[in-house]
Amino acid sequence: MLKGKTVLLGVTGSIAAYKAADLASRLMKQHAQVHVIMTENAAKFISPITFETLTNRKCITDTFDRDYPSDHPVEVEHIALAKKADLVIVAPATANIIAKMAYGIADDMLSTTLLACTCPVLVSPAMNTKMYEHPATQANLAVLRQRGVKIIEPSSGLLACGDEGKGKLPEPAVLVDHILAEIACPKDLAGKKILVTAGPTREAIDPVRFITNHSSGKMGYAIAHAAALRGADVTLVSGPVSLTPPLGVKLVPISSAHDLFCAVTAVSAEQDIIIKAAAVADYRPVTVSDEKIKKADNDLSLSLARTEDTLQYLGAHKPEGQILCGFAMETSDLENKARAKLKKKNLDMIVANNVKVAGAGFGTDTNVVTFITKDNTEQLEIMSKENVAMKLLDRLLEM
After folding, report:
1. Choices 3.40.50.1950, 2.40.50.150, 3.60.60.10, 3.40.50.150: CATH for 6-183
2. How do residues 103-131 score in pLDDT, each as one tens digit?
3. What is the DSSP-derived secondary structure letter of residue 43?
4. Catalytic residue from among 117, 119, 161, 262
5. 119 is catalytic
6. Burial tier of 253 (Cβ tally within 10 Å: 0-12, 13-18, 19+)
7. 76: buried, middle or exposed (CB in 10 Å: 19+, 13-18, 0-12)?
8. What is the pLDDT of residues 135-173, one digit of tens each?
9. Are 282 and 202 in contact (CB under 8 A)?
Protein backbone atom coordinates (compact mmCIF):
# COMPACT_ATOMS: atom_id res chain seq x y z
CA MET A 1 0.00 0.00 0.00
CA LEU A 2 2.98 2.35 0.41
CA LYS A 3 4.69 1.64 -2.90
CA GLY A 4 6.22 4.87 -4.20
CA LYS A 5 5.79 6.63 -0.85
CA THR A 6 8.69 8.04 1.15
CA VAL A 7 8.45 7.80 4.93
CA LEU A 8 10.87 9.66 7.17
CA LEU A 9 11.22 7.90 10.53
CA GLY A 10 12.59 9.94 13.42
CA VAL A 11 13.93 7.91 16.36
CA THR A 12 14.72 9.56 19.68
CA GLY A 13 16.31 8.51 22.96
CA SER A 14 13.74 6.21 24.53
CA ILE A 15 13.99 2.58 25.57
CA ALA A 16 11.16 2.02 23.11
CA ALA A 17 13.58 2.76 20.26
CA TYR A 18 13.87 -0.98 19.67
CA LYS A 19 10.27 -0.98 18.43
CA ALA A 20 11.24 1.51 15.74
CA ALA A 21 13.31 -1.22 14.08
CA ASP A 22 10.18 -3.36 13.74
CA LEU A 23 8.31 -0.33 12.40
CA ALA A 24 10.98 0.27 9.77
CA SER A 25 10.83 -3.38 8.74
CA ARG A 26 7.04 -3.29 8.40
CA LEU A 27 7.19 -0.14 6.31
CA MET A 28 9.69 -1.79 3.99
CA LYS A 29 7.32 -4.74 3.59
CA GLN A 30 4.69 -2.24 2.49
CA HIS A 31 7.22 -1.19 -0.19
CA ALA A 32 7.79 2.28 1.27
CA GLN A 33 11.10 4.11 0.86
CA VAL A 34 12.21 4.53 4.47
CA HIS A 35 14.75 7.11 5.63
CA VAL A 36 15.75 7.08 9.30
CA ILE A 37 17.10 9.99 11.32
CA MET A 38 18.33 9.20 14.82
CA THR A 39 19.17 11.58 17.63
CA GLU A 40 22.44 11.19 19.48
CA ASN A 41 20.65 9.70 22.48
CA ALA A 42 18.68 7.26 20.31
CA ALA A 43 21.97 5.79 19.06
CA LYS A 44 22.78 4.86 22.65
CA PHE A 45 19.75 2.57 22.76
CA ILE A 46 19.96 1.00 19.29
CA SER A 47 22.66 1.01 16.64
CA PRO A 48 22.18 2.95 13.38
CA ILE A 49 23.50 -0.17 11.63
CA THR A 50 20.23 -1.90 12.53
CA PHE A 51 18.22 0.64 10.54
CA GLU A 52 20.70 0.69 7.69
CA THR A 53 20.40 -3.08 7.38
CA LEU A 54 16.58 -2.93 7.45
CA THR A 55 16.14 -0.01 5.05
CA ASN A 56 19.20 -0.39 2.79
CA ARG A 57 19.84 3.32 3.30
CA LYS A 58 22.29 5.36 5.34
CA CYS A 59 20.88 6.20 8.77
CA ILE A 60 21.39 9.91 9.44
CA THR A 61 22.67 10.85 12.88
CA ASP A 62 24.77 13.97 12.34
CA THR A 63 23.67 17.26 10.77
CA PHE A 64 27.17 17.87 9.44
CA ASP A 65 27.99 14.34 8.27
CA ARG A 66 29.78 14.53 4.90
CA ASP A 67 30.71 10.84 4.66
CA TYR A 68 29.04 10.10 1.34
CA PRO A 69 30.09 8.07 -1.70
CA SER A 70 31.95 10.05 -4.36
CA ASP A 71 28.94 9.93 -6.72
CA HIS A 72 26.53 11.21 -4.05
CA PRO A 73 24.93 14.52 -5.13
CA VAL A 74 25.85 17.54 -3.04
CA GLU A 75 22.67 18.67 -1.28
CA VAL A 76 21.51 20.20 1.97
CA GLU A 77 20.57 16.93 3.60
CA HIS A 78 17.87 18.05 6.03
CA ILE A 79 16.13 20.08 3.32
CA ALA A 80 16.44 17.25 0.78
CA LEU A 81 14.93 14.71 3.17
CA ALA A 82 12.09 17.09 4.05
CA LYS A 83 11.28 17.53 0.35
CA LYS A 84 11.34 13.78 -0.34
CA ALA A 85 9.05 12.80 2.52
CA ASP A 86 5.37 12.01 1.96
CA LEU A 87 5.06 11.60 5.73
CA VAL A 88 7.18 11.97 8.85
CA ILE A 89 6.67 9.88 11.96
CA VAL A 90 8.63 10.44 15.16
CA ALA A 91 8.47 7.18 17.08
CA PRO A 92 9.37 7.00 19.85
CA ALA A 93 9.03 10.70 20.60
CA THR A 94 10.56 11.83 23.89
CA ALA A 95 9.41 14.83 25.92
CA ASN A 96 12.57 16.54 24.69
CA ILE A 97 11.81 16.31 20.96
CA ILE A 98 8.17 17.25 21.59
CA ALA A 99 9.33 20.41 23.37
CA LYS A 100 11.76 21.23 20.55
CA MET A 101 9.02 20.83 17.96
CA ALA A 102 6.63 23.03 19.94
CA TYR A 103 9.18 25.84 20.28
CA GLY A 104 10.81 25.49 16.87
CA ILE A 105 14.23 24.57 18.23
CA ALA A 106 16.57 23.13 15.59
CA ASP A 107 19.76 21.90 17.22
CA ASP A 108 20.23 18.47 15.64
CA MET A 109 19.46 16.70 12.37
CA LEU A 110 15.98 15.51 13.36
CA SER A 111 14.67 18.78 14.82
CA THR A 112 16.17 20.74 11.93
CA THR A 113 14.56 18.46 9.33
CA LEU A 114 11.19 18.63 11.08
CA LEU A 115 11.19 22.42 10.71
CA ALA A 116 11.61 22.04 6.94
CA CYS A 117 8.81 19.47 6.48
CA THR A 118 5.49 20.42 4.91
CA CYS A 119 4.09 16.87 4.68
CA PRO A 120 1.87 15.19 7.33
CA VAL A 121 3.69 14.68 10.64
CA LEU A 122 2.84 11.98 13.18
CA VAL A 123 4.24 12.02 16.71
CA SER A 124 4.07 8.96 18.96
CA PRO A 125 5.08 9.90 22.53
CA ALA A 126 6.86 7.33 24.70
CA MET A 127 7.99 8.23 28.22
CA ASN A 128 7.30 7.85 31.93
CA THR A 129 3.67 8.45 32.86
CA LYS A 130 4.44 11.46 35.03
CA MET A 131 6.55 13.00 32.27
CA TYR A 132 3.74 12.45 29.78
CA GLU A 133 1.10 13.90 32.10
CA HIS A 134 3.25 16.88 33.13
CA PRO A 135 1.57 20.18 32.21
CA ALA A 136 4.56 21.22 30.13
CA THR A 137 4.39 18.10 27.96
CA GLN A 138 0.63 18.34 27.59
CA ALA A 139 0.88 22.02 26.66
CA ASN A 140 3.51 21.22 24.04
CA LEU A 141 1.35 18.45 22.58
CA ALA A 142 -1.58 20.87 22.44
CA VAL A 143 0.55 23.34 20.47
CA LEU A 144 1.51 20.62 17.99
CA ARG A 145 -2.12 19.56 17.55
CA GLN A 146 -3.08 23.15 16.79
CA ARG A 147 -0.44 23.19 14.05
CA GLY A 148 -1.88 20.08 12.43
CA VAL A 149 0.51 17.49 13.85
CA LYS A 150 -1.25 14.21 14.58
CA ILE A 151 -0.50 12.82 18.03
CA ILE A 152 -0.76 9.04 18.40
CA GLU A 153 -1.89 8.39 21.96
CA PRO A 154 0.51 6.19 23.96
CA SER A 155 -0.61 2.86 25.35
CA SER A 156 -0.97 2.04 29.03
CA GLY A 157 0.84 -0.69 30.91
CA LEU A 158 3.99 -1.56 32.80
CA LEU A 159 6.77 0.86 31.82
CA ALA A 160 10.49 0.13 31.67
CA CYS A 161 11.05 2.22 34.80
CA GLY A 162 8.71 -0.04 36.77
CA ASP A 163 5.82 2.43 36.93
CA GLU A 164 2.47 1.49 35.47
CA GLY A 165 0.38 3.89 33.43
CA LYS A 166 0.15 5.73 30.14
CA GLY A 167 3.37 6.23 28.22
CA LYS A 168 4.13 3.06 26.23
CA LEU A 169 4.87 3.29 22.53
CA PRO A 170 2.02 1.53 20.66
CA GLU A 171 2.87 -1.67 18.84
CA PRO A 172 4.47 -1.15 15.40
CA ALA A 173 1.41 -2.60 13.64
CA VAL A 174 -0.69 0.18 15.16
CA LEU A 175 1.80 2.81 14.02
CA VAL A 176 1.70 1.38 10.49
CA ASP A 177 -2.09 1.66 10.52
CA HIS A 178 -1.81 5.37 11.36
CA ILE A 179 0.65 5.85 8.51
CA LEU A 180 -1.58 3.99 6.06
CA ALA A 181 -4.54 6.10 7.13
CA GLU A 182 -2.62 9.25 6.20
CA ILE A 183 -0.98 8.43 2.88
CA ALA A 184 -1.84 4.95 1.57
CA CYS A 185 -4.80 5.94 -0.60
CA PRO A 186 -6.42 8.94 -2.27
CA LYS A 187 -9.40 10.06 -0.19
CA ASP A 188 -11.88 9.45 -3.02
CA LEU A 189 -14.59 8.30 -0.58
CA ALA A 190 -14.35 11.35 1.66
CA GLY A 191 -17.81 12.56 2.63
CA LYS A 192 -19.40 9.18 1.96
CA LYS A 193 -21.09 7.13 4.67
CA ILE A 194 -20.50 3.41 4.26
CA LEU A 195 -21.95 0.62 6.38
CA VAL A 196 -20.29 -2.80 6.30
CA THR A 197 -21.46 -5.97 8.02
CA ALA A 198 -18.96 -8.73 8.83
CA GLY A 199 -18.50 -12.02 10.62
CA PRO A 200 -20.94 -14.69 11.75
CA THR A 201 -24.05 -14.45 13.88
CA ARG A 202 -24.86 -16.72 16.82
CA GLU A 203 -28.35 -18.04 17.53
CA ALA A 204 -28.62 -19.25 21.11
CA ILE A 205 -29.88 -22.74 21.96
CA ASP A 206 -29.23 -22.48 25.70
CA PRO A 207 -26.79 -20.47 27.87
CA VAL A 208 -23.78 -22.44 26.56
CA ARG A 209 -24.67 -23.51 23.01
CA PHE A 210 -25.51 -21.70 19.80
CA ILE A 211 -25.90 -22.14 16.05
CA THR A 212 -23.30 -20.36 13.95
CA ASN A 213 -21.06 -20.75 10.88
CA HIS A 214 -17.38 -20.68 9.93
CA SER A 215 -17.14 -16.99 8.97
CA SER A 216 -13.97 -15.30 10.25
CA GLY A 217 -15.04 -11.77 9.32
CA LYS A 218 -11.84 -11.16 7.34
CA MET A 219 -13.58 -10.09 4.14
CA GLY A 220 -15.88 -7.60 5.84
CA TYR A 221 -13.08 -6.18 7.96
CA ALA A 222 -10.90 -5.78 4.85
CA ILE A 223 -13.70 -3.82 3.17
CA ALA A 224 -14.19 -1.60 6.22
CA HIS A 225 -10.44 -0.99 6.44
CA ALA A 226 -10.15 -0.13 2.75
CA ALA A 227 -13.12 2.25 2.93
CA ALA A 228 -11.62 4.03 5.95
CA LEU A 229 -8.25 4.37 4.20
CA ARG A 230 -10.06 6.04 1.32
CA GLY A 231 -11.65 8.61 3.59
CA ALA A 232 -15.15 7.23 4.12
CA ASP A 233 -17.14 7.52 7.34
CA VAL A 234 -17.37 3.79 8.07
CA THR A 235 -19.72 1.91 10.40
CA LEU A 236 -18.80 -1.75 10.89
CA VAL A 237 -21.54 -3.99 12.27
CA SER A 238 -19.67 -7.12 13.32
CA GLY A 239 -20.56 -10.49 14.69
CA PRO A 240 -18.20 -12.25 17.14
CA VAL A 241 -14.72 -12.47 15.58
CA SER A 242 -11.11 -12.48 16.78
CA LEU A 243 -10.07 -9.51 14.63
CA THR A 244 -8.96 -6.04 15.69
CA PRO A 245 -11.30 -3.33 14.37
CA PRO A 246 -9.65 -1.18 11.68
CA LEU A 247 -8.40 2.25 12.67
CA GLY A 248 -10.95 5.02 12.22
CA VAL A 249 -13.98 2.73 11.95
CA LYS A 250 -17.05 2.90 14.19
CA LEU A 251 -17.58 -0.64 15.49
CA VAL A 252 -21.06 -1.89 16.41
CA PRO A 253 -20.71 -5.38 17.91
CA ILE A 254 -23.67 -7.73 17.57
CA SER A 255 -24.34 -11.38 18.27
CA SER A 256 -27.57 -12.63 16.70
CA ALA A 257 -29.29 -12.06 13.37
CA HIS A 258 -31.90 -10.00 15.22
CA ASP A 259 -29.16 -7.85 16.73
CA LEU A 260 -27.73 -7.28 13.27
CA PHE A 261 -31.14 -6.39 11.83
CA CYS A 262 -31.72 -3.79 14.54
CA ALA A 263 -28.21 -2.30 14.30
CA VAL A 264 -28.29 -2.02 10.52
CA THR A 265 -31.82 -0.73 10.05
CA ALA A 266 -31.31 1.91 12.76
CA VAL A 267 -28.78 3.74 10.53
CA SER A 268 -29.39 2.34 7.03
CA ALA A 269 -31.34 5.31 5.67
CA GLU A 270 -28.40 7.69 6.15
CA GLN A 271 -25.81 5.52 4.36
CA ASP A 272 -24.51 6.18 0.85
CA ILE A 273 -23.29 2.61 0.42
CA ILE A 274 -24.21 -0.56 2.35
CA ILE A 275 -22.08 -3.69 1.91
CA LYS A 276 -23.52 -6.81 3.54
CA ALA A 277 -20.57 -9.17 3.93
CA ALA A 278 -21.72 -10.84 7.17
CA ALA A 279 -22.64 -14.53 7.19
CA VAL A 280 -26.04 -14.20 8.83
CA ALA A 281 -27.86 -17.25 10.19
CA ASP A 282 -30.98 -18.07 8.21
CA TYR A 283 -32.62 -19.90 11.14
CA ARG A 284 -32.80 -19.60 14.92
CA PRO A 285 -34.20 -21.94 17.57
CA VAL A 286 -37.89 -21.27 18.24
CA THR A 287 -37.27 -21.52 21.97
CA VAL A 288 -34.12 -20.83 23.96
CA SER A 289 -33.64 -22.77 27.17
CA ASP A 290 -32.82 -20.74 30.30
CA GLU A 291 -30.82 -23.68 31.60
CA LYS A 292 -28.19 -25.84 29.97
CA ILE A 293 -29.89 -28.68 28.10
CA LYS A 294 -28.64 -31.92 29.65
CA LYS A 295 -27.56 -34.83 27.51
CA ALA A 296 -30.06 -37.69 27.38
CA ASP A 297 -30.08 -41.16 25.86
CA ASN A 298 -32.64 -40.19 23.24
CA ASP A 299 -32.14 -37.87 20.26
CA LEU A 300 -32.74 -34.13 20.54
CA SER A 301 -34.80 -32.19 18.03
CA LEU A 302 -34.68 -28.44 17.61
CA SER A 303 -37.52 -26.45 16.05
CA LEU A 304 -36.11 -23.64 13.92
CA ALA A 305 -37.69 -20.43 12.69
CA ARG A 306 -36.53 -17.99 10.00
CA THR A 307 -34.49 -15.03 11.13
CA GLU A 308 -35.14 -11.52 9.86
CA ASP A 309 -33.83 -11.05 6.30
CA THR A 310 -31.91 -7.80 6.70
CA LEU A 311 -30.79 -7.69 3.07
CA GLN A 312 -34.35 -8.17 1.82
CA TYR A 313 -35.51 -5.33 4.07
CA LEU A 314 -32.76 -3.02 2.86
CA GLY A 315 -33.56 -3.73 -0.77
CA ALA A 316 -37.26 -3.01 -0.20
CA HIS A 317 -36.56 0.24 1.70
CA LYS A 318 -33.57 1.54 -0.27
CA PRO A 319 -33.49 5.35 -0.50
CA GLU A 320 -32.93 6.93 -3.89
CA GLY A 321 -29.23 7.10 -4.70
CA GLN A 322 -28.12 4.51 -2.14
CA ILE A 323 -25.91 1.66 -3.38
CA LEU A 324 -26.67 -1.77 -1.88
CA CYS A 325 -24.18 -4.62 -2.27
CA GLY A 326 -24.71 -8.15 -1.01
CA PHE A 327 -22.59 -11.29 -0.84
CA ALA A 328 -23.46 -14.80 -1.96
CA MET A 329 -21.43 -17.82 -0.94
CA GLU A 330 -22.51 -20.91 -2.86
CA THR A 331 -21.34 -24.46 -3.49
CA SER A 332 -22.73 -24.87 -7.02
CA ASP A 333 -24.31 -22.97 -9.94
CA LEU A 334 -22.71 -19.79 -8.63
CA GLU A 335 -23.73 -17.15 -11.16
CA ASN A 336 -27.36 -18.23 -11.60
CA LYS A 337 -27.98 -18.40 -7.86
CA ALA A 338 -26.24 -15.09 -7.29
CA ARG A 339 -28.22 -13.39 -10.06
CA ALA A 340 -31.46 -14.68 -8.57
CA LYS A 341 -30.48 -13.20 -5.20
CA LEU A 342 -29.48 -9.91 -6.87
CA LYS A 343 -32.95 -9.58 -8.39
CA LYS A 344 -34.94 -10.84 -5.41
CA LYS A 345 -33.20 -8.59 -2.91
CA ASN A 346 -33.15 -5.52 -5.22
CA LEU A 347 -29.36 -5.19 -5.04
CA ASP A 348 -27.12 -3.00 -7.16
CA MET A 349 -24.27 -5.52 -6.98
CA ILE A 350 -23.61 -8.93 -5.53
CA VAL A 351 -20.21 -10.43 -4.76
CA ALA A 352 -20.33 -14.18 -5.34
CA ASN A 353 -17.86 -16.89 -4.43
CA ASN A 354 -17.80 -20.65 -4.25
CA VAL A 355 -16.71 -22.09 -0.91
CA LYS A 356 -15.38 -25.16 -2.70
CA VAL A 357 -12.86 -23.19 -4.77
CA ALA A 358 -9.32 -23.19 -3.39
CA GLY A 359 -8.49 -19.84 -1.79
CA ALA A 360 -12.12 -18.74 -1.47
CA GLY A 361 -13.29 -20.54 1.66
CA PHE A 362 -13.95 -19.37 5.18
CA GLY A 363 -11.03 -18.06 7.22
CA THR A 364 -8.60 -17.60 4.33
CA ASP A 365 -6.58 -14.45 3.62
CA THR A 366 -7.47 -14.69 -0.08
CA ASN A 367 -10.69 -14.79 -2.04
CA VAL A 368 -11.90 -15.69 -5.53
CA VAL A 369 -14.95 -13.60 -6.33
CA THR A 370 -17.24 -12.57 -9.14
CA PHE A 371 -18.82 -9.11 -9.22
CA ILE A 372 -22.34 -9.33 -10.64
CA THR A 373 -24.64 -6.46 -11.56
CA LYS A 374 -27.80 -6.38 -13.63
CA ASP A 375 -25.82 -5.86 -16.85
CA ASN A 376 -22.34 -7.16 -16.12
CA THR A 377 -20.32 -10.06 -14.75
CA GLU A 378 -16.68 -9.60 -13.74
CA GLN A 379 -14.71 -12.60 -12.51
CA LEU A 380 -11.56 -11.82 -10.53
CA GLU A 381 -8.52 -14.02 -10.10
CA ILE A 382 -7.46 -15.23 -6.67
CA MET A 383 -6.11 -12.29 -4.66
CA SER A 384 -5.83 -11.03 -1.11
CA LYS A 385 -9.04 -9.95 0.56
CA GLU A 386 -7.52 -6.46 0.89
CA ASN A 387 -7.17 -6.27 -2.90
CA VAL A 388 -10.69 -7.63 -3.40
CA ALA A 389 -11.94 -4.91 -1.05
CA MET A 390 -10.18 -2.16 -3.00
CA LYS A 391 -11.51 -3.42 -6.34
CA LEU A 392 -15.01 -3.71 -4.91
CA LEU A 393 -14.91 -0.10 -3.68
CA ASP A 394 -13.64 0.98 -7.11
CA ARG A 395 -16.69 -0.57 -8.77
CA LEU A 396 -19.15 0.80 -6.21
CA LEU A 397 -17.64 4.27 -6.53
CA GLU A 398 -18.12 4.09 -10.32
CA MET A 399 -21.77 3.22 -9.74
Report:
1. 3.40.50.1950
2. 999 999 999 999 999 999 999 999 999 99
3. G
4. 161
5. no
6. middle
7. exposed
8. 999 999 999 999 999 999 999 988 887 888 898 999 999
9. no
